[in-house]
Amino acid sequence: MKKYLSLLAIVIVFISCKTENEEVVKATTDLSVKEYHNPESHNDQFTGGIKMIPITTPKGEFKVWTKRIGHNPKMKVLLLHGGPGVTHEIYESFEGYLPQEGIEFYYYDQLGSYYSDQPKDLSLWDLDRFVEEVEQVRVALGLNKDNFYLFGQSWGGILGAQYALKYQDHLKGLIISNMVMSIPEYQKYSDEVLAPQLPPDVLKEILEYEAKEDYGNERYLSLITEHYYPKHVLRMKPSEWPNSVNRTFQHVNPDVYVTMQGPSEFGIKGDATLKNWDIMDRLKEIKVPTLSIGAQYDTMNPKHMEWISTEVQNGRYLHCPNGSHLSQYDDQEHFFPGLIKFIKDVDKGEAL
């Protein structure tokens, strides 16, 4: 009887997988697998899609790392990682979803991040300079208004929105993921909504360390890792975090992170250059099709992220009911279908 049940389970799984695969095939573009991996229109086959792109800055020329996955002249997504100072590794889950939908995408380590040059001049860690860097990357990769989708998550969402305010004529679509458009609003949500959800004794101890600015204390970090991260950053036990996420955190550049984000893991504080960033009153200037992604358990207020979609001229909201700040891992069921649908709807010219 046990053998029969096991065989039946295998058959059910096989049928289920077959059905899912058929649905994937139906969902893909008219590109064949061969066409999607066609290297003829690219000059990066020798390096497996990797390009080191020269970037001109006020402090000289440096190089940033990018890597292309796939080939589709109509749908190309440039991924802006968070941090600041994190890496492209946080997006490795995208490889499980976008290629089978025929969507070309680019990993990209911003200047200062792991695979790119890491100059020591702190004046380079400036939002406006990063905007100009993204524009130089766009030009080098040959992205334009007919195919260019810009995806930014967390700090990448700040960078993506700021880029759109200046260069949206080069965009086909914008995706702002897990980021509000005001750091003061983010801090308020952290202080008034998320902090009270912690056990009172844990919150008290965290705030004591923050008052002393003892951010490197192992006890402080362990409290954040044990009580805050698994609820609002990635809803998994830290011991079960994917290898790509662990590598991302191992490779953070603290100079970039602390300069722009500050030393606290509980908001943006101190002399962080992003502390007063707020473009809420400018969102109405963004006319390019825009997807805002929010999550129920995020460090950011999901209601604010829904509001973003109503404030831009042509917006859509994607809610991840089971997700947190890294919804591409803890709510893939909603994150990827919604992201893919947006890209394809914009490509087909369908109303949001």
TrEMBL record:
<keyword id="KW-0378">Hydrolase</keyword>
<dbReference type="InterPro" id="IPR050266">
    <property type="entry name" value="AB_hydrolase_sf"/>
</dbReference>
<dbReference type="InterPro" id="IPR029058">
    <property type="entry name" value="AB_hydrolase_fold"/>
</dbReference>
<dbReference type="GO" id="GO:0016787">
    <property type="term" value="F:hydrolase activity"/>
</dbReference>
<dbReference type="InterPro" id="IPR005945">
    <property type="entry name" value="Pro_imino_pep"/>
</dbReference>
<dbReference type="Pfam" id="PF00561">
    <property type="entry name" value="Abhydrolase_1"/>
</dbReference>
<dbReference type="InterPro" id="IPR000073">
    <property type="entry name" value="AB_hydrolase_1"/>
</dbReference>
<comment type="similarity">
    <text>Belongs to the peptidase S33 family.</text>
</comment>
<protein>
    <submittedName>
        <fullName>Proline iminopeptidase-family hydrolase</fullName>
    </submittedName>
</protein>
<dbReference type="InterPro" id="IPR002410">
    <property type="entry name" value="Peptidase_S33"/>
</dbReference>
<feature type="domain" description="AB hydrolase-1">
    <location>
        <begin position="77"/>
        <end position="331"/>
    </location>
</feature>
